[in-house]
Amino acid sequence: MLTLGVDLAAADKRTAMAVIEWLPGRAVVREVVLDVSDARIVEASRRGDKIGLDCPLGWPEPFVALVTAHQASHVTVDDGGGAPWRRRLAYRQTDEVVRKETEIIPLSVAADRIGHAAFRCAGLLAMLAADGQDVDRCGDGKIVEVYPAAALNRWGLAHRGYKGRRQQAQHAELVTALCAAAPWLELGAFEALVRRSHDAFDSVVASLVARAAATGKASRPDDEQRVAARSEGWIALPTYPLAGLLDLAAA
Fold first, then answer.
1. Which residue, of 89, 161, 218, 250, has the fewest CB within 10 Å?
2. Cross-referenced Pfam families, in alphabetical order (predicted)?
3. Running along the chain, 251 residues long, what does each successive block of 10 average in pLDDT?
4. Would residue 71 count as lying in a domain?
5. Residue 92: inside a domain
6. CA atoms 120, 122, 126, 129: torsion sign
7. Within a domain: residue 131?
8. Residue of 166, 149, 167, 147 lying closest to 158 (CA atoms)
9. Residue 26, SS3?
């Protein structure tokens, strides 16, 4: 099995992709690249079994409805336009689930800068679908939405304070901690890059979560949640320890 992890930025710069091959008893990192284009992601997806995309796959349904209504006329403001109403506009159902399960608040695709990456993601999903890939925002197809910080939290690893020029030491410590928790993960020639770039590191984590999703070891929306997840997207949270990713490994 091959899994891809993509840390998607608004542009090619700062976009990273990792490819992991899963073999009996070990997982080998076959590729880690930076400054990745949409075309390269689409090409790589053809040989991958599951792709973890670190980017929101959609927008909150209430936000989409608000923009549509506002474009046509005037909106109906619930709760007097207070914080609860604004929160429903800003956060997707899956964001609230992640917040409840991990106490981590994902960035709002409707109100934070991550929306720029989501614009790109919408186009990328269209390209993948046109290429014949099974794009299901619930995660049931080849693509699954991932959130590295939440995954690291689930695996008992540090998930804050490792990004930025002044956090190189914390970043290096986190890579060391991941390697200790998953001694079967072979970074090989890409270890230096993963230690140097948190984008590269996040792409590796995204590929690990893709494996969890592919083997039924990540959360999936229930029937009620699936209604919104079809358009909003669904963040797959690992439900097993890291060691569980090796089970059912296929050559």
1. 250
2. DUF429 (PF04250)
3. 97 97 96 98 97 98 94 80 89 97 96 96 98 96 97 93 79 94 97 96 98 97 97 97 76 36
4. no
5. no
6. positive
7. yes
8. 149
9. strand
